[in-house]
Amino acid sequence: MFALASCSQITLKQGEINASLYQGDVQKAYDVLNQDIDKWKKNRNALLYYWNKGTMAWMLGKHQESSELFMTSDYFLEDMYRNYANVAASLFTNDKVKQYRGEDHERLLFQYYQILNFMQLGNREYALVQARRLQLELQRLDDRYKGDKDAPDARYHEDAFAYLLIGLVYESAGELDNAYVAYKNAYRIYSNFYPSTLGVEMPEQFKQDIMRLAYHLGHPDELERYEKELGLVYDRSQGKRGGNTVFFWNNGLSPVKQEISINFTILRGSGGWVTFTNSQYGFSIPVYIGEEHTADGSAFSNVELIRATFPKYASRGAFFTHAELLANGRHYPLELAEDVSSIAHKELDDRFLKEIGKTLARLALKKASEYQLRKESPEAGAALGLINFFTEQADTRSWESIPHQISYTRLELPPGKQSLVLRATAPSVLQDHPITVYVHSEGMSFVGFHTLQPGNPLP
Question: Could you tell me which residue, 263 or 346, shows the higher pLDDT?
Answer without folding.
Answer: 346
